[in-house]
Amino acid sequence: MEVRKVQEKDLVQVNLICIRSFEASIAGSLGCEGITTFIEIAKSSAFLKRMQQDNTILVAEDKQRIVAVIELKAGHHIAMFFVDPDFQNKGVGRALFNAILPHVRTDILTVSASLSSIDIYKKYGFKYAGEVGESAGLVYQPMELKLSSSERAV
Q1: Count: domains in the chain
Q2: Residue 6: which of 51, 65, 54 has the closest Cα?
Q3: 20 to 30 Å CA-CA from 101: which of 6, 35, 55, 121?
Q4: Which positions fall inside the N-acetyltransferase domain (predicted)?
């Protein structure tokens, strides 16, 4: 497995992983608005736009197949983090998470975790950072991880 920066040619596969993972673990707990919002955020064109901004997007690739994606917004917020359901619980998510840490530019890494992903973020050391919220139909738990200087970019 290789972890690398996303390329424009990867975006169709990235979209499919996001949608497949979302449908398997999150979509059932949301209404139509939340599902529509997520579909828009996960579109290849939306990823392309964010690639051209200040977001760092990494993918995990297995035998030339993209199997996971993580997106760091503005050097401090995990905006997307999805592992293909067939590759979950195999260390792929941990490898991607560890690979994004050097790109973090602050002492605190944040995430608006879907309710079904809270336990995963807890395993990575995240703590609750506020009450459950909702934005455009997406329900999330604010969480944060305090990083030492050796864990983040200098």
Answers
A1: 1
A2: 51
A3: 35
A4: 1-148
